[in-house]
Fold this sequence. Notes:
It is a single chain. The protein is α+β, with helices and mostly antiparallel strands. It is built from five helices and seven strands; from the N terminus they run E-H-H-H-E-H-E-E-E-E-H-E. The protein has helices spanning 21-32, 39-45, 55-64, 77-82, 121-129, and strands at 2-4, 67-73, 87-91, 95-103, 106-111, 115-120, 136-142. The longest helix has 12 residues, at 21-32. The chain is globular. One of its GO terms (molecular function) is ATP binding.
Amino acid sequence: MYKNATPLPYPFYKQQQDNECALSCLKMVSEFYGKQITFEYLRELVQMDPEGISIYNVVKSLNLLNFKSLVVSATYFSLLEKAILPCIMLWKSNHYVVIYNITDGYVNFADPNTGLLMMDIKDFSGLYKDSEKEEWIILLEPRS
Length: 144
């Protein structure tokens, strides 16, 4: 189901603590758009609790980092095929990942706990079709 992604110019930063996957995602999307920020700066910027960061605080942090963002339900998977990428997804309701590319039937994404990965799009979308839990993606782009 998973395989290592072909080396592509996608930023990747491993989460430094168990509850910092969102920080890593913020750092990755910022670097993708040419913004260099440190984990220390993000820890000061982001309101965290012991479990991590709420989707509300991720969006608030994106705004402070000068990004426009929109939160949508991941059940609208076809939206990902048309969305501006990268985007941040709340993976399995408790872990943030960055989706970088969807091409040739595969999803290229960064899991802050694991690395850059590639997954068959049918397997990826199948994770959400029958789920009763709501899954979310955060579409984003830099402010001009």
